[in-house]
Amino acid sequence: MHARCSVCGEPAVARVEYARKWLCGAHFAGYVEGKVLGALERYRLVERGWRVLAAVSGGADSAAMLGVLAKASVALGFRLAAVHVDLGIEGFSEASRRAVEELCGSLGVPFAVVSLPEVAGVGLPELARRARRPVCSVCGAVKRYLVNVAAAEAGADVVALGHHADDLLAYAVKNFLFQRLPELAKLGPKTESTGGLVGRVRPLYEVYKSEASLYARLSGLPFTEERCPYSPNRSVEGEVRAFLDSVEARRPGFKISLARGLARNAGLWGQGPRSPPRACRVCGAPSEGELCSFCRLTLKALGRPMGDVAREKVREAVSAIKW
Ligand code: SF4
Ligand code: ZN
Ligand code: ZN
Predict the structure, then answer these.
(1) Domain count for the chain
(2) Residues that bind Zn(2+) 2, according to the entry (predicted)?
(3) Is 151 in the pocket of ligand 1 (CB under 6 A)?
(4) What is the reported pTM?
(5) Are 25 and 61 in contact (CB under 8 A)?
(6) Annotation-wise, does 228 bind a ligand?
(7) What percent of the chain has pLDDT over 70?
(8) pLDDT tens digit string along 3-41?
(9) Per-10-residue mean pLDDT for the chain, 323 residues long?
(10) How much is the CA Rg of the chain, to the nearest whole Å?
């Protein structure tokens, strides 16, 4: 016999083990939306009237986030737009960008694309090669910088990130194992705006990766399944993720308890992201020294700090967003 939805008795499409429920497509979608709304309220992630800029990659996770936020924006009275950073990775970036365009088009969410090749004249792989740094570490720095500038230039109150519980927990446990404790302070559901740093929130804090993907699929949200060619095949995070999943299989709901514990205690591990004390001499972004990390990176890789050019290009790009 096929399983039936615990709510309406229609054929079920998903088992939510920790809630001991079978759910049909409609009730599964409602369940995920309820979890996100619950997190928005429990952690006070957004306020009525705010301008929320969602950073979207084109993958299923951020598609799910944008889909739920589009509904929540009506219920909770905030404004929503999206930004996508085109990294200039052959094949992958084109597919990601197309997915974002389709996604935002189908949801009616205004969006801007910030293109790294347009900003810096080279794509991510070439930038990393010239900087002699690992691609993923340059990627993280570039995305953080460009999304923050986009949020500041667009007048956003907060940036929403599509990190789900599996991402956050694997990263948190890895950092605990390596005793990089200050990193844990950055992993709460939100960080406040300070100085030139726009605050960040994680609406999918308690949503599992499998739930986000199924939600995106069931809701017919456009996303790409293309994998970044630089994503590592074997990583400590991957091993931690497999371990957390094996515990979850025996103790359903374990990952949610862990996420709630992290939300409660992240602040104990340090101060979290603070606005660095100075403004970059070239682009004005918050900076520890004379130059911000993006200007230092581009100076090393390209012979010239590009923050001022980047800010100009980002300003042009986000002028497409009409809140
Ligand atoms: Fe960036 Fe690709 Fe590395 Fe992810 S896997 S951080 S998208 S370079
Ligand atoms: Zn149902
Ligand atoms: Zn700078």
Answers:
(1) 1
(2) 280, 283, 292, 295
(3) no
(4) 0.95
(5) no
(6) no
(7) 98
(8) 999 999 999 999 999 999 999 999 999 999 999 999 999
(9) 91 96 97 97 96 98 98 97 98 98 98 96 97 96 97 97 97 95 92 89 98 98 96 90 97 97 88 74 92 96 96 96 92
(10) 20
Mode of pairing for the β-strands spanning 278-279 and 286-287: antiparallel
The DSSP H or E segment spanning 190 is strand 190-191
* 3-state SS assignment for residue 281: coil
Does residue 162 have a known ligand-binding role? yes
Is 3 domain-assigned? Answer: no
Q: How far apart are CA 47 and CA 40, in angstroms?
A: 9
| Dist. CA 136 → ligand 1 center (Å) | 5
Instruction: List 286's β-bridge partners, or say none.
Output: 279
* CA–CA dist 11, 223 (Å, integer): 26
128 touches ligand 1 (CB under 6 Å) = no
Residue 265 CB less than 6 A away from ligand 1: no
Contact 158, 200 (CB under 8 A): yes
Rounded Cα distance, 40 and 263, in Å? 13
Cα dihedral 126, 130, 134, 136 sign = negative
Q: Could you tell me the residue range of the domain that residue 69 belongs to?
A: 29-272+304-318
299: Cβ below 6 Å to ligand 1? no
pLDDT digits (tens, 9 = 90+) for 108-140: 999 999 999 999 999 999 999 999 999 999 999
pLDDT given at position 23: 98
Which protein residue has the closest C-alpha to ligand 1 atom 6? 136
Q: From the CA of 309, which ligand is nearest?
A: 3
Residue 278 inside a domain? The answer is no
| Distance, CA of 130 to CA of 2 (rounded, Å) | 56
Whether the CB of 36 sits within 6 Å of ligand 1: no
Domain presence at residue 291: no
Q: Say how far residue 27 (Cα) sits from the centre of its chain.
A: 25
Specify if 283 maps to a domain. no
β partners of residue 287: 278
CATH label of the domain that carries residue 38: 3.40.50.620
